[in-house]
Amino acid sequence: MNTAQSSSPRKFDRQGGRARLTRRMAAGAAAIAAAGAVSLAGAGTASASAGPCYSGIDSGTTNWAWGSCTGVSGSSHWRLHVSCTWGDTRYSSWFYGNGRTDVQCPVPESVRATQIDIIY
Fold it and tell me: For a Cys staple, 55 with which of 15, 36, 41, 67, CB 3.0–4.6 Å?
C-alpha cells in the first residue's frame, strides 16, 4: 500500500498530556516517510508530506488541548483529535499547511488523550 497516497489518517498519540513520542513511533513514522518518498519519486506523482506534529494538554488547565504541525505540504492535511474523560471526542478543523490549534473538552470533563490525525 502506498502510504503517501492513502486516505486513512495516521495517528501520533499523546497520552495524559505528556509531550513525548516513543522511539517505536518515531521509527515507524520515519519508515513511513521514507517509503512514501521512494514511491513518490518513482511514480512521478504530486508530492505530499507532513513534518513533525505534536499535541498535549495546555499548561495550567485540564480541559484544553493543543496540537501543531510543521512541514505540511502538498495535499496533506491534519487535525487535532481529543478524547475527553466522560467519553466525548472533540476535533479541530482540518488544516492544510503548518499551524497550531486548541480544542476544549466540555466542563467539567478533562482531556484524557490527544493525537494528530494526518491524511497524506
Answer: 67
Angle at 5 between CA 3 and CA 6, to 5 degrees: 65
- With a CB cutoff of 8 Å and minimum separation 6, the contacts of 77 are 94, 95, 96, 118, 119
Per-residue pLDDT of the chain (120 residues; tens, 9 = 90+): 444 444 445 454 444 433 333 333 444 444 444 444 333 333 334 456 778 999 999 998 999 999 999 989 889 999 999 999 999 999 999 999 999 999 999 999 999 999 999 998
Please report the sign of the dihedral spanned by the C-alpha atoms of residue 92, residue 93, residue 96, residue 101: negative
C-alpha cell of residue 113: 488523550
Distance (Å, whole) CA 66 – CA 103: 6
Domain that holds residue 31: 3-119
* SS3 state at 62: coil
Q: Is the preceding peptide bond at 108 cis, omega within 30 degrees of 0?
A: yes
